[in-house]
Design brief:
Elements (H helix, E strand, L loop, with lengths): L3 H15 L4 E6 L9 H8 L4 E7 L2 E6 L3 E5 L5 E3 L8 E7 L3 E5 L6 E4 L16 H9 L5 H6 L9 H11 L12 H20 L40 E5 L2 E5 L7
Antiparallel strand pairs: 1-6, 2-3, 3-4, 4-8, 5-7, 6-7, 9-10
Helix pairs in contact: 1-6, 3-6, 5-6
Length: about 260
């Protein structure tokens, strides 16, 4: 599933194409991607001028001159400005200059009118300050891995980047958040900022389906230190990377470098 760095990359490639464009017409054909009245959604979008394209958590927020869309890419969703319509194209926006396609083979993504789900998200990981972050951790007794995945706690983190952040901070994924000392909380905050910033610079991680709006892959997967490296030697100490299930999610960590 595309996470913060991937969605940020999509937004940065979409915005120059879409900002200022007008939607001439739209077509939606999936009851999963666009549940409800698809004809009504097409009417709501048609004729609208695109004012901005932004990211909020894992959502792409498209603001029109009146109203807007929230797009969640799910596991295999893609917004493409230079793509060709396929059997998996479930959204097509005809613009006054060009087209925008939404492709999604597994149809787990969503295109919704309004920003109801976006309004429920927690702070942005790259915006939250250390004091607020540390105070939020102290209030939570849950394990740090599932907490960081909780979109109401922080918006945009997923399995890849939580594993990488915890490794960079030297924190075991099962550590209760409230038990983290001030120093370890500060290290976790810095690791979060550094990891996400570097991942955005490398245009995200292309492990399976993810591409940006131009159809280009990211390359941060080449820099993963634990995610997807089960059984391989840790880059820091040489111990085999382990994989366990935490909160129903596969979790990669180094048993030597990451302490509870």
């Amino acid at each position: 599933m595309p996470e913060l760095p991937e969605v940020e990359t999509v937004v940065r490639t979409l915005a120059p194409y879409l900002t200022g464009r007008r939607v001439i017409s739209a077509r939606f054909t999936s009851r999963f991607v666009t549940p409800g009245d698809r004809a009504k959604l097409a009417r709501q979008v048609s004729g609208r001028r695109i004012e901005s394209v932004a990211r909020r958590g894992k959502f792409i927020v498209i603001a029109f001159d009146r109203g807007g869309l929230a797009v969640h890419l799910g596991m295999t969703g893609k917004l493409l400005v230079s793509g060709i319509e396929t059997v998996h194209t479930y959204g097509l926006f005809t613009l006054d200059d060009g087209v925008l396609l939404y492709d999604d083979p597994r149809q787990f993504g969503r295109i919704e009118w309004g920003h109801a789900r976006v309004a429920k998200l927690g702070p942005e990981p790259l915006d939250i300050g250390l004091a607020e972050f540390s105070a939020s951790l102290r209030k939570r007794k849950t394990q740090v891995k599932p907490l960081l995945l909780n979109q109401a706690f922080l918006a945009g983190l997923g399995n890849i980047y939580v594993d990488e952040i915890l490794f960079a901070a030297g924190i075991h994924p099962l550590t209760p958040a409230a038990r983290l000392s001030a120093g370890r909380a500060a290290k976790l905050h810095q690791a979060m900022v550094d990891t996400l910033t570097l991942a955005i610079e490398h245009r995200g991680s292309s492990i399976s389906d993810y591409v940006d709006a131009d159809g280009n892959r990211g390359n941060f997967q080449m820099l993963h230190r634990v995610y997807g490296r089960e059984g391989e030697p840790c880059a820091a100490c040489g111990a085999p990377i382990k994989k366990v299930v935490v909160g129903s999610r596969g979790t990669h960590y180094c048993p030597v470098c990451q302490k509870r």
